Amino acid sequence: MSAWFISRITASHRGQLITTAVVSGMIAAGAVISFQTARRRYKVHDLKASIPDISQEHVATKLTEYGAAADVFAPSKEDEHSMALAVRARQGDYDDDLILEQLARNRVFLGDEGLSKLRSSFIIIVGCGGVGSHCAAALTRSGVSKIRLIDFDQVTLSSLNRHALATLADVGTPKVHCIRRRLEQVTPWTHFDCRNELFSKKTAARQLTALDGHAPDFVIDAIDNIESKVALLHYCHSHEIPVISSMGAGCKSDPTRILIGDISASTDDPLSKATRRKLRALGVKDGIPVVFSGEKTGPGKAQLLPLPEEEYKKGSVGELGVLPDFRVRILPVLGTMPAIFGLAVANHVILEITGYPHEYLTSKARDKMYDGILGSLLGLEERLARSRGEDSLGLRIPITQDDVGYLVDDVYRGRSVISGLSTRLCLTRWNKPEDGFVHKRTPGQKNTLLQLKDLVCMTKEEAAEHEKEILKGDKNLEDLYDTKVIDAVNERIRKEEIFER
Description:
Elements lengths: L1 H10 L1 H38 L26 H14 L5 H7 L1 H16 L2 E5 L3 H13 L3 E5 L24 H9 L7 E5 L8 H4 L10 E4 L4 H13 L4 E4 L11 E5 L7 H12 L7 E5 L15 H5 L22 H19 L12 H21 L7 E2 L4 H11 L13 E5 L8 E2 L6 E3 L6 E5 H12 L5 H4 L2 H18 L1
Parallel strand pairs: 1-2, 1-4, 2-3, 4-5, 5-7, 8-11
Antiparallel strand pairs: 6-7, 9-12, 10-11
């Protein structure tokens, strides 16, 4: 039937014209499609051919499928003018008297010799986020003439709450170039060596090398990734390169707790704790100065929570990170704290390079008070042991000075839980200890089974009455305190158990 129909159509002149038009259209469409396919293949071939091979001269690091920040950006007229002035200044076309006038306050503070050392120094900053950017700004304004900036990341909108120099116009550009562009407008004579790269153990030797024959006078660690941080600190320690490390500013809010000391003394900082553990495995126990905070988490404070269970169910959690082994959660950061950390780091570097005398406090000003509270707590445990017929000679307690400071300042806010008074404070057991609370199973050692959750903060007068009526007497807590006080203590103990875990 179909053959008969086709033969009828083609037999007529009109049918032949229609058939010819249809066939011609099909041939033309096929030719266009073939041309477009060939053109696309040639473009893809040319694009692939334009990508250079990876070599020693061309370093590439695999990030996510989205890649790293691009080095290409469109400078503004102001940027172009600043860059041109910076080029001329670095070539010597800038009056030295103007530089000294700009650095006049540093000059009278450090002296001519000290300022000269600072001006001729070469500093490497690894990590150009909140801490690194403030550190770079302070060092540049103080007169450092050569700074190498190393960071693989780009400026994001969330960077603007803590970055020293980034603006909305910088979002999407590499952090190293953002810092260079802004600081060239302040000190055009400073030479910035920008490395838009990821720091790692494999690249350490190349990234920490000399600049124009000048070995680094100091390396600053402002990295927030533990693996990279450990690699940097271990390399510097092994090669005797002066280095200082910034520990965690996330979840911190108390600037009075920020300290500078050896990494072996930074016991209260979680990031320092993890870094110190890994360095110890590599044979590095001390000898690295760090800026850290002794502030501990507490009720109502920001903290890094575990990922929700639903995120684990979606698949590999590691794919959520920018890079393998990088954190996959947003860290709560108060914008002022990274700035204080960065300025403290810069201050240390300036004093070290110029030889300016400096001695940091190795302990908190309240240490004497903590020692007194610790002593009175030991006395309480000895009295309780004797009241139970135990030998209290040589008795020890598993509580340290740091534990005392944590309970008094962070858990009880430096006030008595009974009256709210802040003077003559001490720690005491809340509940009567159970029989056998003195541990004597280890030969030659006696200690009480005391835990942080067992202790509350009171004034010495309140603690004396509490000891007489509750710990040694027959009264219950309800007989001595109202419901409000008991509920407040139970809530503090409950939260302390959570934060301790």
